[in-house]
UniProtKB/TrEMBL annotation:
Gene designation: sufC
Name of this chain's protein: ABC transporter-like protein ATPase involved in Fe-S cluster assembly
Domain ABC transporter as annotated: residue spans: 4-250
Superkingdom: Bacteria
Taxonomic lineage of the native organism: Bacteria, Pseudomonadati, Pseudomonadota, Alphaproteobacteria, Rhodobacterales
Gene3D superfamilies: P-loop containing nucleotide triphosphate hydrolases (3.40.50.300)
């Protein structure tokens, strides 16, 4: 049983003839946590964008299957409805839109596209309060406009709450290059760990090993120059932490 299968994925920018992904192979089973590490510019974020269906990229070869369906043929909204969730790279600020409204709209859009009934206001409130409490998120944050004036840590926490509400099957987390401070990182890790389950998988993209001190991955992949060049257990992340990418990428 596989959740996500990426086979020989080649991607270039739509605007120019620049190959970015050059044959990515990756299989994620239900319940597994995979981490992708790698030097800046190696194609980690591009991988996450292509999985989420962001504009601007053209798949020139290869396949992506999500629960037996061709993911690449699905619209971004269909992917979200199917259970693919991309978090973190650039959390948007939405002035004027309260967090509760945003969450309810997102949740009901998802339910609608799955052919499910919308939640009543009361049921939604009950659910969001319970989820927030279980993630130790202050109910006060629910009333504020989405991400406006949030600290870095609050934005992360908010994304974790979105994730908890939408109950995705595959959560893709793409940490920004600048990384997180230690407290924000712990929050993210606690949130992810709370949401881990035998049916839910995670693809955690990070430039640093630190996050993986708190989220224990089943498999670690090293990406370089548009390909996954090495895969292993958590020890691979430690190797990067101690020795950098030099030795791992020598001869690749
Ligand atoms: P990573 O996340 O591993 O740092 P990215 O996926 O962001 O790597 O980028 C991979 C390569 O593709 C880099 O060389 C980057 O400059 C290039 N790239 C990605 N997106 C764009 C874009 N929209 N326009 C120009 N170059 C891009
Ligand atoms: Mg980058
Ligand atoms: Mg990146």
């Amino acid at each position: 049983d596989k959740m996500l299968t990426i086979k020989n994925l080649h991607v270039k920018l739509e605007e120019e003839d620049k190959a970015i992904l050059k044959g990515v192979d990756l299989v994620i089973k239900p319940g597994e946590v995979h981490a992708i590490m790698g030097p800046n510019g190696s194609g980690k974020s591009t991988t996450s964008y292509v999985l989420a269906g962001r504009d601007g990229y053209e798949v020139t070869d290869g396949e992506v299957e999500f629960e037996g369906e061709n993911l690449l043929e699905m619209e971004p909204e269909e992917r979200a409805a199917a259970g693919v969730f991309l978090a973190f790279q650039y959390p948007v600020e939405i002035p004027g839109v309260g967090n509760l409204t945003f969450l309810r709209t997102a949740l009901n859009a998802q339910r609608k596209s799955r052919g499910e009934e919308e939640l009543s206001a009361a049921d939604f409130l009950k659910l969001v309060r319970a989820r927030a409490a279980s993630l130790k998120i202050d109910a006060e944050m629910l009333k504020r406009p989405v991400n406006v004036g949030f600290s870095g840590g609050e934005k992360k926490r908010n994304e974790i709450l979105q994730m908890a509400m939408l109950e995705p099957k595959l959560c893709i987390l793409d940490e920004t290059d600048s990384g997180l401070d230690v407290d924000a990182m712990k929050l993210v890790a606690e949130g992810v760990n709370a949401l881990r389950s035998p049916e839910r998988s995670f693809l955690v993209i990070t430039h640093y090993q630190r996050l993986l001190d708190h989220i224990k991955p089943d498999v670690v992949h090293i990406m370089a120059n548009g390909r996954i060049v090495k895969s292993g257990g958590p020890e691979l992340a430690l190797e990067v932490e101690n020795n950098g990418y030099g030795d791992l990428l020598a001869g690749v």
